[in-house]
Amino acid sequence: MATEDARYRQTSQYQLWSFSPTQLAAMRENTNAAARTRIADRLASLPAASSNTSAPTSSVNTPDPEGAATPALPEFLTAPEEAQLMNFNTSELLRAGDHAEMPDEIKATAAAFFRRFYVTNSIMTYPPQQMLIVALFFACKAEGSFISITEFGKQFGKDNPEEILAGEFLLCQGLRFAIDVKHPFRALRGAMMELSTLPDIEARQVPSPLPREYSLTLLFQQRDRLAAAEHRAREILRFSALMTDAYFHYTPSQIMLAALSLADRGLAERLITQTFHYVAPPPLSDNSGVDTPATSGPDALSNNTKKAAAPRSHNNNNNNSGQDKTQMIGSQIRDRVLGTIETCRDLLSKELPERREHWTNKAVIKAQIAPLRKKLTKCHDPDRWNLVELQRVRREQAAKKAGGGGGSDDGEPDDRTLDGDAAVFGEALPVPPKRRKVGAGATGGGAGQGKGDPFGGVL
Amino acid sequence: MAVSPLVAPTSDAAQPSQFARPTSSPFKRQASAVPSSNGNGTPRYPPHARPPAPDAAAVALDPIEQLNEDEKRKYVKGKKLGEGTYANVYLGHVRHDPATLVAIKKIKVQQQYLDGMAPDAVRELKYLRELCHPNIISLLSVFSSKDQNLNLVLEYLPLGDLEMLIRDVDRVRYGAGDIKAWMGMLARAVWFCHDNHVLHRDIKPNNLLIAADGDVKLADFGLARSFADPGRRMTANVITRWYRPPELLFGARHYGGAVDVWSVGMVFAELIIRAPFLAGNTEVEQIALICKQIGTPTEDCWPGVSQLREYTVPADVVPVWGKEAYMGRFGAVGPDGVDLLVRTVALDPKKRITAREMLEHRWWRTDPKPTRKEDLPRKSAGGEEKMGADLKRRNGTVDSDSNNRGAKVARKLDFGQAK
């Protein structure tokens, strides 16, 4: 059976929505550039009067010194400005989810949807304030909670739910129809359960440096280190992990460990060393009888270290299993994991839960967000900003030319070499064979591929 | 377990192809970058992103729309295989390889469901997109058509479904080895779902489609859901009545993979006797049949059962039948086969065999050997229409039905088309 890692690599979250920071930045630049070009073209072709730069009626008849046919183009948002607005709107989304008392999973799924959508769609193209509500609505469905649109709309004071529905399909398309999001919440619970079984966890809080303003008074009083750590880590997962690009760059477990590490570094490291404990035996020479491991003794016979040093007739087998172990739970992996957790931790620490206040701070909004919004009202896409209208037009178009399809073959581009940090997500995937061998390969691996394997193999 | 996927992504570089899946191919471009629409329909790929020349963006397609357009163009839609209220099903093929057939399931915008994309479409999309197994129908691609309908491109399964084979008593003969082969494939599919924390909740013979090479494929994930967190309630109104386990008939709101295992047991029994084993016309009748044929659920054999919301059983208690009682009717699969059957229909879901344990059962290893899939009996005609009919159906009962429990009819079981 497949390891959880192998399973994770099969998810759409990994296959479609995991990127290196460089990749992600390039995609966002690209999206921004494409939107600018299109909106510029569109605005240029619109007659001045109907352009969305507000034209007071009184000035319609006055001569335009610049010439009415070529209205000046607005200033567009840059990619970093879009990112800023996206972060702000993600925090708005989380607030809206809190307001409607949605479960953590739904809010988290909605946040992931929202940020994924705006990887390939510009904030200048589709209105983020509406799309965040759409993301919340669709996240409810994706998490199996099917509530009526009227009911849902009421929670946000929207009497006309049409706007939400109009954006649903758009969102779904922007998500590339991959609507399963893997979260770190259950992983955290599991980690805490695992930690609680370890005998040597100190019961008292030994806090790693925490922000001074964060009060753990109550929890300190309980002197319950695990409970405090879980509480804090969960807060981080509920906010920091969603406000950053963590879901794009890291697996749920990595995010969970990074959050735990921020809450209580000792616990996270304990868990990691507990998992990656394997010490490879020294390579065997021909007369290997002498290097008996120090742990020898009757009960060490079942010990892997001992096995690896067993008589030569078994060497091949045992060496292989030793290598496998080293590869999976050896110290090299441990160090790499620690490194990954550390970078994820750095990322999460940019948006610690205390930053919730930052994003609702009036002064911050006035200084940082309002100017961008103002810019946005001038540079947004005139054709797509109104979702209801857009949907109506599209439906009309579809009705006009029912059928359709066809067209020429599109060339499959093959310049899929990966540069820079893109390589962490593996080489470009080759066109997979028509039949996949999940039973024998991914899922059957490890447990044995023979006929005797009830989980795979040929029946 | 919770910390298992720790390995840094870097370590994947050596062996990603092993895990590549066909489902990924239509989407995988995304992994590299997003194309810019540069006017000629050919997406351009960074890493070194160049903004398109200002005059080149005459085509007003978003990058994502362009991708969708490309996706759509990969397939050619052919004749209609079936038309239903929920979906239309078309035969199609891959544009550059006309020999590769696909089924395109176009989900209709549903008039009666006012809340946007319908639950069954959402569920089907969510789970089929993630589950990738030889015995689960593969979702090759998804695209939207101009009228904003979802189009699911599924692998083409031309040989009908298990129900068709079961019913065609005159022309289709099969034996214990064949049943073992089909059951093996079904058990693997269910195990894979459960191992991925997905409940199918509508297992029955006409959701088990047959591929050209004889593989059985579990289809129709319109009622599927993820395992609920402990304490969270689920609807009891799932699974077509004849295949529905007693705990759901009694209104249990907390349940697990055992519900699917019961359905597997019902399919197993049906394969042997070539008729539905417990075919109740109402829920009450269904419960009565279970009591009569398997035994009455009581506190003795199923501690806690009387606490279930809708627990009612006929007054005359029938003791739970032992293995021997099944031998007469189901003996064709041998004592080991009967042993497996009895374990799948344990009344108490806690005592019911799990999908994993099913696969470890000794029956698979005793004679007769399961038939090789290329030698399995098949029907030569009618499969194409059958796939059309199977896919166009509205998926099983939906949550919203639960408020009219009295009139609740799980779903019409139409045998008319399956002669």
From TrEMBL, chain A:
<feature type="region of interest" description="Disordered">
    <location>
        <begin position="47"/>
        <end position="69"/>
    </location>
</feature>
<protein>
    <submittedName>
        <fullName>Cyclin-like protein</fullName>
    </submittedName>
</protein>
<comment type="similarity">
    <text>Belongs to the cyclin family. Cyclin C subfamily.</text>
</comment>
<dbReference type="GO" id="GO:0016538">
    <property type="term" value="F:cyclin-dependent protein serine/threonine kinase regulator activity"/>
</dbReference>
<feature type="domain" description="Cyclin-like">
    <location>
        <begin position="91"/>
        <end position="173"/>
    </location>
</feature>
<dbReference type="InterPro" id="IPR031658">
    <property type="entry name" value="Cyclin_C_2"/>
</dbReference>
<feature type="compositionally biased region" description="Polar residues">
    <location>
        <begin position="285"/>
        <end position="306"/>
    </location>
</feature>
<dbReference type="InterPro" id="IPR013763">
    <property type="entry name" value="Cyclin-like_dom"/>
</dbReference>
<dbReference type="InterPro" id="IPR043198">
    <property type="entry name" value="Cyclin/Ssn8"/>
</dbReference>
<dbReference type="GO" id="GO:0006357">
    <property type="term" value="P:regulation of transcription by RNA polymerase II"/>
</dbReference>
<feature type="region of interest" description="Disordered">
    <location>
        <begin position="397"/>
        <end position="459"/>
    </location>
</feature>
<keyword id="KW-0195">Cyclin</keyword>
<feature type="region of interest" description="Disordered">
    <location>
        <begin position="282"/>
        <end position="328"/>
    </location>
</feature>
<dbReference type="InterPro" id="IPR036915">
    <property type="entry name" value="Cyclin-like_sf"/>
</dbReference>
<feature type="compositionally biased region" description="Low complexity">
    <location>
        <begin position="47"/>
        <end position="59"/>
    </location>
</feature>
<feature type="compositionally biased region" description="Gly residues">
    <location>
        <begin position="441"/>
        <end position="459"/>
    </location>
</feature>
<dbReference type="Pfam" id="PF16899">
    <property type="entry name" value="Cyclin_C_2"/>
</dbReference>
Automatic annotation (TrEMBL), chain B:
<dbReference type="InterPro" id="IPR008271">
    <property type="entry name" value="Ser/Thr_kinase_AS"/>
</dbReference>
<feature type="active site" description="Proton acceptor">
    <location>
        <position position="202"/>
    </location>
</feature>
<keyword id="KW-0808">Transferase</keyword>
<keyword id="KW-0547">Nucleotide-binding</keyword>
<dbReference type="InterPro" id="IPR017441">
    <property type="entry name" value="Protein_kinase_ATP_BS"/>
</dbReference>
<dbReference type="InterPro" id="IPR000719">
    <property type="entry name" value="Prot_kinase_dom"/>
</dbReference>
<feature type="compositionally biased region" description="Basic and acidic residues">
    <location>
        <begin position="367"/>
        <end position="393"/>
    </location>
</feature>
<protein>
    <submittedName>
        <fullName>Pkinase-domain-containing protein</fullName>
    </submittedName>
</protein>
<dbReference type="GO" id="GO:0004693">
    <property type="term" value="F:cyclin-dependent protein serine/threonine kinase activity"/>
</dbReference>
<feature type="compositionally biased region" description="Pro residues">
    <location>
        <begin position="44"/>
        <end position="54"/>
    </location>
</feature>
<dbReference type="GO" id="GO:0005737">
    <property type="term" value="C:cytoplasm"/>
</dbReference>
<comment type="similarity">
    <text>Belongs to the protein kinase superfamily. CMGC Ser/Thr protein kinase family. CDC2/CDKX subfamily.</text>
</comment>
<dbReference type="InterPro" id="IPR050108">
    <property type="entry name" value="CDK"/>
</dbReference>
<keyword id="KW-0597">Phosphoprotein</keyword>
<keyword id="KW-0418">Kinase</keyword>
<dbReference type="GO" id="GO:0008353">
    <property type="term" value="F:RNA polymerase II CTD heptapeptide repeat kinase activity"/>
</dbReference>
<feature type="binding site">
    <location>
        <position position="105"/>
    </location>
    <ligand>
        <name>ATP</name>
    </ligand>
</feature>
<keyword id="KW-0723">Serine/threonine-protein kinase</keyword>
<dbReference type="GO" id="GO:0045944">
    <property type="term" value="P:positive regulation of transcription by RNA polymerase II"/>
</dbReference>
<dbReference type="GO" id="GO:0005524">
    <property type="term" value="F:ATP binding"/>
</dbReference>
<feature type="region of interest" description="Disordered">
    <location>
        <begin position="367"/>
        <end position="419"/>
    </location>
</feature>
<feature type="binding site">
    <location>
        <position position="106"/>
    </location>
    <ligand>
        <name>ATP</name>
    </ligand>
</feature>
